[in-house]
Description:
By secondary structure, the protein is an alpha/beta fold. 40% of the residues lie in helices and 13% in strands. Helix 4 runs antiparallel to helix 5 (146-165), helix 5 (146-165) packs across helix 18 (402-410) and helix 10 (263-276) crosses helix 13 (318-327). The chain has helices spanning 39-42, 93-96, 98-103, 129-138, 146-165, 175-188, 201-212, 234-252, 254-259, 263-276, 298-307, 312-316, 318-327, 330-342, 356-367, 373-383, 389-392, 402-410, 442-449, 472-483, and strands spanning 26-30, 45-52, 62-70, 82-85, 111-114, 194-199, 217-223, 279-284, 291-296, 429-434, 455-460. The termini are far apart. The strands form two sheets. The protein has a nine-stranded mixed beta sheet with strand order 1-2-3-5-4-6-7-10-11, sandwiched between helices. Strands 8-9 form a two-stranded antiparallel ribbon.
Amino acid sequence: MLAAVVVSPRMPRATASTVVPAAVPRFEPAPCVHLTGVEWLAHARCGYLVVPEDRSKANGHAIRLMVALHRAQSPERRPDPILYLEGGPGDIAPLEINAIITANFIRDRDIWVVSQRGTWSSKPALICAATNNFARELLGLRFYSEQTERAHLAATETCRRELTAAGADLGPYNSSESAADLADLRKVLRISEWNVYANSYGTYLAQTLMRDHPEGIRSVVLDSVLPTTYTIPANWWNARYGFKNIFNACAAEAACNAAHPHLEETFTRLVNKLDATPLTTTIADPNTGKNIKVVLDGSALIDWLRNQTYSVPTLQAVPDRITGLADGRGDAIEAVAKDRAARAPPYSPGAPALGDGLAFGVTCREDYPFATPQDLAVAGRKAFPDYPASITREGVGGWAYVNEDCRDVLKVPAAPKSMHAPVASSIPTLLISGTFDTLTSLAGAKAAASRLSRATIISIPGVGHTVSPWSRCAQAVIVSFYTAPRRAPDTSCVGTLKPPTFTSSR
């Protein structure tokens, strides 16, 4: 393949004489967002992609998506840049990209980062105070209960009213429109060819882009893969995949097995015990320093374990935390409670937060319609037959009450059934899975690859969700893949890997 030619590799600079055309799509240079502790944005060049909110309406509203360009760190800059797609849906791409920049393995290509429609730093940012405030309130409630369900749905209803009053229609906040946004960005920047790098939900969006707008895509890396065949019940199977691999890895490590024998059975007993008799503790909130009450029941414990997937150090500490909880150790109780509190900081307007509009729009259009609540309960019971039915009949972790959100409150029109099919493509694609991932799985990567004729799958032991920042081997495979995507990448390092050693406070 001939090297791509970038017709206009430099982001245009705004000047006093710049005349902004009325047509959309268009690109408008603008200063980067200034945020304390986000020094990498200070070195980027930014602007806004202006696109129609709803492409089915001839004279509809325009929206603005923040775009940041991070220049290649190597003087030998390749002409084909990287397009980075963050997960969620609704996560904050300009902040999350730092993990890739810090890992420093993509040195020879510019990286374009797009804040997807409705997310923080784009305009409008569809972020709801009510849902963020409920996340704080949930810390002091049973994870699943009639009271919790009422409070949850009330927050969703308040969010819906806020967004409607602001003129937002959740209908076009979906993967199809987002993929069209990305295709428009490539055109207005006059980039002839680029590579896609995606994480979590971003992999789902990348597959949508491959299907709907394959033009100009040289190669695709999918890290922690969510296939287009995904439905909400799959979350229970993904949790089982990650949990089992963590427990099995501890059993296979002599020191871990000696300190924490029968870890899976211990965890299952804890889930049942705490479901019957929740543990309530008061800790110093890591966000504010003030005392806060945290309720730990069986469902909260499951959610805690799922959330350890985001970093290798937290995964390494899992066996000791579980045994500590079972033994009633204060340090373990405090650590688990603080972890939960840290993930629900107090909300303040304008602060970085999940883009609720996109999260609800995608989930209710593309995930909810393709499985029933009965399917969810069956999946939970089969994946974890020894957990209480009061837990497994609900959406696991952050997916709690999502069926009720979509069916009773949001009522977003369903996506066409064709969107739920595997994507067929000949674009070279590298799919990466971590064995300790509790949110996506190797089975999901295989499902996504089923109709990709140039697919390579690698599984990295001992790493959770978002593999490449934590694995030098995965980074080496990605570099090899981007160098010559139509040749098989060098995956020789994968076979030499072992999970990292678990840690203990003893």
